[in-house]
Amino acid sequence: MKAVCLLSGGMDSSTLAYYASRQGYEILALHVNYGQRTEAKERAAANKIARLIPALDFVEVDISYLRQFGMSSLTDHSIGVETFDETRADLPNTYVPFRNGNLLSIATSYAESQAADAIFIGVQAQDYSGYPDCRPQFIEAFQQAIDAGTRDGTRIRLITPFVSMSKSEILGIGMKIGVPYEYTWSCYQDEEIACGICGACHFRRAAFESLGLKDPIKYRGG
After folding, report:
1. Cα(221)–Cα(198) distance, integer angstroms
2. pLDDT-derived band of residue 88, with 50, 70 and 90 as boundaries?
3. Domain with 149 in it
4. In this structure, is residue 10 part of a structural domain?
5. How many domains, in total, are found in the chain?
6. Which of 109, 156, 189, 221 could form a disulfide with 195 if both were Cys (CB 3.0 to 4.6 A apart)?
7. pTM
8. How far is CA 5 from its chain centroid?
9. What order do you get walking across the sheet with 157-159 strand by strand?
């Protein structure tokens, strides 16, 4: 079996790639640069994880045209990345409009061209930042698009094993299967030392703390 695995180099996607490999899939690792602030660090992390699995292939795709659309602090560097705020009622400014729709479209093209059986994406709908393209109904709708938009006889399963899990549960799985979190990167803002206060840092740190574990990456201020 072969599977395209969207691999950002972050905690969830790295756990996902290891998980998919343990499920018996040969991994076609797909890393996408969409113009994000920490792309260099993410690319290095994804490449390292892909080599450690080891992946059958590692492909990088550039869709930095998302910078032209703006709206997100990840792609418009004139907008500051917001500090995590659990009282926020609306979406944080780190939301990139329909990013996962773009990523899954590319993954589908890659999967169909390689006769892959599945696409793995590490979306979750519990302790996340409220992004609409992480919701189960979005994933269900995209599966229908895959079924309708690929060649007759093609069957590519869109697999989201973490969609109903918390970050702590995902980390627990990763620890059991030996994911090397020291090589992963989650921070939205910085590439050398994690800021510790953006949404991605908040959820990552909280997961490690909830399991009584020490996060192997460094954070600003200790």
Report:
1. 14
2. confident
3. 2-210
4. yes
5. 1
6. 189
7. 0.95
8. 9
9. 57-62, 26-33, 2-6, 118-120, 157-159
